Amino acid sequence: MSFRDWYRIDRLPTIYCVGCGNGTVINCTLHAVDTLGWKWEETVFVSGIGCSSRAPGYIKTDSLHTTHGRALAFATGIKLARPDLHVVVFTGDGDLAAIGGNHFIHSCRRNVDMTVICMNNWIYGMTGGQGSPTTPRGAITTTTPYGSGEGVFDLSALAVVAGANHVARWTSYHVKELTRAIQTGLETPGFSLIEVLTQCPTAYGRRNKLRDVAETVEYLKDHAILLQKYNRLVQEGKPVPEDMFTVGEFIRRNRPAMGVPP
Amino acid sequence: MQGNTACAEGALAAGCRFFAGYPITPSTEVAEHMAVKLPKTKGVFIQMEDEIASIAAVIGASWTGARAMTATSGPGFSLMMENIGYAAMTETPCVIVNIQRGGPSTGQPTLGAQGDMLQCRFGSHGDYSIIALSPASVQEMFELTVKAFNLSERYRVPTFLMGDEIIGHMRERLTIPDSVEVIGRKKLDPGTMPFKAGGDDIPGFPVFGEGYGVHVTGLTHDERGYPATTNPKAHEKLVMRLVRKVESARKEIADYRVTSPDAEQVFVSYGAPTRTVHQVLHDRPKEEIGHLQLRVVWPFPEFALSEFPEAKSFLVPEMNLGQMAREMERHTDVPVIPIPKLGGELHTPDELVRALEGSR
Ligand SMILES: Cc1ncc(C[n+]2csc(CCOP(=O)(O)OP(=O)(O)O)c2C)c(N)n1
Ligand code: SF4
Asked: Which numbered atom of ligand 2 lies nearest the CA of A52?
């Protein structure tokens, strides 16, 4: 099989805007499951509500497109009832960290054996561009017309302290690294979060001087700093620019997990 | 045995393999009993982070083919509403036990009520139908839980066991039969579209992990299961079928008990107030007093009212302000007299007798 065989062809093209980063993330995910030789009959994709959460509808496995924020709770039911199935969740920053924040930390704590891929575009895309828990300070959204004044969640850091077995962050620029990270997530027993910073030209870029897709991807590349490099700079007491974010693997460990096949 | 434990035993007898819940008085004993028993029978028990997650996990488990259940009360029941609508829309079999307590809000955690009878029918947004049963004894907690699973699996609808604190915490003798009738869900024929129903309006179920490759969504969907959110015809067709598959089966689903069909005064009850009605009938053996006990409350069996052709009044004791009485009024020209009782205590026989005499 090739990753293309995982698509539900009769549902293409997707509803995504031209230049949306979500398609890249789906491609990387399907590459990863395909590389591992997983069978589509034994794989279930689950999601909540949002542009990102539409992803399972384009994949030919069994899939459950649920309610806003609750995907992880539904996925927990599937995985505990049928540990032999592979469970992969697509979610967005609003879905995972705002309305679904409680399920997020508790799924990490339980360390339920699933891989969660969060398309973090700093915005509520589907509803037209409202602020999310990851909207950067100062960013313009329809609900922060004078610039966001709220703090920002670091989703990966949250997953690490909450107990996930594997956590990595990449961007839609880093397709190779992202695909490898997803693969590691799929192979790691327990809860895995892959956070992908990705562009939403329509709802975010347009209002925040990131209208051009190529420029946005360039921006993501330029502002990503490898975790190891970041740690070195900090150790050496050197300054790290405020608008940089770390990428890489934050944790890989083997804490007791739930729903691991026997 | 206690009513709540009998409910859990009923679930186990019916083949329940998955329970997810969050503690809340007066329903907690259901979860606690499942926590003890399920792991011993290769089942799964999990305490979730809230009731929203509990019903979500139950629905997820159900898609793997497992018979799945949750139990809660007032505040937790309110939290479940969005996902109950999801279960209705996606036609997911699941059993929701509500051991009712006094509301609104945190209300009376330790006392009984029947204030959620309309919420269980209409609590989630949009039009849909559900099935609800109401036990009046420990034995019925067992029997009707079994029945709730069978109805839920057969009709692919969320099904409610609408108990109350009084029956949930009551201790009575329970006879557990050697075996109970267990009806499983009909499987989807391979090659058939997953949300295409036959004459009974109930599509076959495509169990996850069996190669169906089904897409399940709470969005308005066509018979393939694909989103069709802006197609007015697809929406109407789907919602009408969701309602029809339950409402047109009202006679098959109905379960009620008739006493003295020739009576002019007829008590209509479900759940705990049934006990007081029994007491009144027992105390006045010489009078002809009718009694209709509804064991299935929704879909409302309006034809049951015609079992009393001589009826001059229907007296309806409820531990709410007349929720089912209001439904009855739609279906009969006979005067319906609500006998509401709030506060957590059961009606006394005297209160019912006074209403009876007042209606003559
Ligand atoms: C309970 C509930 N509240 C609100 C909504 C409306 N809603 C739909 S998608 C969405 C936000 C999605 O944002 P995100 O999860 O970041 O996904 P994106 O669209 O950006 O991929 C909201 C608020 C809903 N569907 N359900
Ligand atoms: S609104 Fe944003 S996230 Fe949604 S499809 Fe368009 S670009 Fe992608």
From this structure: 3
